[in-house]
């Protein structure tokens, strides 16, 4: 069996294995904070309690690609009521897939589409000299990849042809972006193809993954959906081991909301040092600024408890852990939730401010889309880091307006309405 067919067979086996495991789990009671150190309970979507209009997903043409493409084109999972725990990552003892080979497969599958924008790694003007130079940087990617059900069924990108959103091709664009930069830590939002696509592929590439769906995902209002969307966090097994994890359902004024966060403490195997990583996706749309602020306050409160060790049982045994928080905050820098993070006692700084000449200004946009309500060009996505404990070595630059194109995002050459953010981060000396 040649390498491509072997790669396809492995991915197909992983998909089947994930399906079988999902039937063996038991439910749990919902709560605002779920703190676990081994198995990972799940928030169960409660779509049956909602009376929402069902939106159809758009029709799209399907093409036959390589053998790998055929395995990824296998039937999607029915909406699961229960979610398998991340111990499944250790249960899969199949050989890892060659990322270079998989990247070539993506390029073959996308040969009829225009190339993605070329983005350069940019080094900040005055990179801090205190990093541990004996060890490689930690590459972190943050990306709202656009839920398939929302892209085809609800978001109504009026300048994006429906065929450009065809999952049978768009997933290769997403995977190509990830494989091009090969992050050590990958934080995703709007993931609604976790178990049939991202979990088996990323596991084959040497990652451990965790997924937390929204309790009431808008994807469930779309016909032929693939289940709820949520946040996903992946880390490279060769670089990190998992020390502890918490799954959060964010609250506002003590009331649980529909937004979630994953928090994990990882141990760097090269340095022996620990790092706390969080991924979240706050409430969207204008008019919800106060709710986003309350959600941000709740997340910060939990992060303080989980990293500093005050109050409840924490992820940190003693001192404060270095922290990275990735997310689609759905908030421009002038919003209160942004100010909360930038002035937090956790000592957080926004990595992408370092691209500006004054090191204090965010990029002009991380999302650029056109809907029936008009054109929206905003900075909504961020990578926050503890600036006293970590230093940013380089960042992936923002595509120009010309590279994005007149029809904006998503498009034939870019799979999401949000740009991916990426930076290399190093530990400072203790």
Helicity range? 10-25%
Specify the number of helices. Answer: 10
Uncertain stretches = 1-11, 14-52, 59-88, 310-314
Q: Describe the biggest sheet?
A: 7 strands, mixed
Average residue pLDDT: 82
Rg, please?
20 Å
Secondary structural class: alpha+beta
Q: Terminal Cα separation, in Å?
A: 50 Å
What is the H-and-E element order? HEHHHEEHHEHEEEEEHEHEEEEEHE
- The global form is globular
- Count of DSSP E strands? 16
- DSSP strand (E) fraction? 25-35%
In order across it, which strands form the biggest sheet? Answer: 1-7-8-9-10-14-11
Which structural traits does this protein have?
alpha+beta; 430 residues; disordered N terminus
Overview of this protein structure:
The chain is an alpha+beta fold and 430 residues long. Helix content is 24%, strand content 25%. It has helices spanning 3-22, 67-72, 88-91, 99-109, 148-153, 167-181, 194-204, 289-308, 336-342, 401-404; strands spanning 33-36, 121-122, 138-144, 185-191, 207-213, 230-236, 240-252, 255-268, 274-281, 323-328, 348-350, 367-371, 374-378, 381-386, 390-396, 421-427. A seven-stranded mixed β-sheet has the order 1-7-8-9-10-14-11, covered by helices on one side. Strands 2-15-16-3-4-6-5 form a seven-stranded mixed β-sheet, with helices on one face. A two-stranded antiparallel ribbon has the order 12-13. The termini are far apart.
